Amino acid sequence: MIQVTKTFLPPKEEYEAILQQVWDSNQIANGGKLHQKLTQRLKDYLNVSNIVLTTNGTLPLQIALKTIAGAGEVITTPFSYVATASAIVWEGFKPVFVDICPEYLTIDESRIEAAITENTRAILATHVFGNPCNLEKISEIAEKYKLRVIYDAAHAFGVQYKGKSIFKFGDISTCSFHATKPFHTGEGGAMFCRDQSLFEELFYRHNFGHKGQLEFQGLGINAKMSELQAAMGMAVLPYVEQIKEDKKTVYAWYDENLDFEQIRKQVLRPGASLNYSYYPIILSNEKLLLKIEKELNLKNIFPRRYFYPSLNNLPYVRKVDMPVSESIASRILCLPLYSGLREEEVRTISRIINSNLKE
């Protein structure tokens, strides 16, 4: 069976050796030694100054939204994982959807200003499949209207834009360390920001609001990463570059074998690097997608429809038309891509797709 992705597991003995430190310290939570080590190593690897590790990748979105004063509207994309929109609703804000660029698949920055009202509090945009948004234009709009910018960078671990970590842009960036991601802690995530006072707020909010052991600085929640998660992160991080190279090779095999007469790919934004986490293809129509998906499934190959349906059709948001997002969501398919996928398997997948394009 070939799934859309496969979790990278480090050598068991290496993970167990790191876990032994947990047994030695008898501390399994609350910022133990492994948590501290992983925080510093990620700072060094990503070249960032502030990072808060969390127990999953959704709580960072919720905490980031909680830093916005008052209620109101948050401008966001309809083309992302459901957590992007649900976090907005969960925190009491109203999502205002802006359609996407058909090439980059990120929020269409040219449409953002028209969606701003006196109730707008922030822009929450997604770097789709790790492809950065138009960072300069969004920053310009946010500064003009005094809006906070939050980036859902769940897919963007290790991505750089013009030589800088993608996590250095916006007021707050969030990331997922879920098992399907290029770097993972099993479950897990992180928040990044440049401003020190904002970092301190994110930190206390992820730890029940604690200022010290007996004091509380403000409202918080429990989003702390455990030592067991940190241990997995410490075991996986040394392999991240090799994982990336392996996926880059698989990515190139698809490029060589797929017939692009009726398929198109997401356009990479100039100045951005790829982390090779996804290989999305955009087909001409949904009927063709369903046909290809069925033929692949019959061969025990399971691609995935990221992101379907378009988030403007969720049952708990106000329905609005997002024609580009809805069109892309109906005919985009992410192909299997992971370290260990063999060239012959990529050729088989490509052959099945190509043969169905010609019929």
UniProtKB/TrEMBL annotation:
It comes from the Bacteria. It holds the Pfam family DegT_DnrJ_EryC1. The keyword Ribosomal protein does not apply. The active site is at residue 181. GO terms for biological process: polysaccharide biosynthetic process. Belongs to the DegT/DnrJ/EryC1 family. This is DegT/DnrJ/EryC1/StrS family aminotransferase. It comes from Christiangramia oceanisediminis.
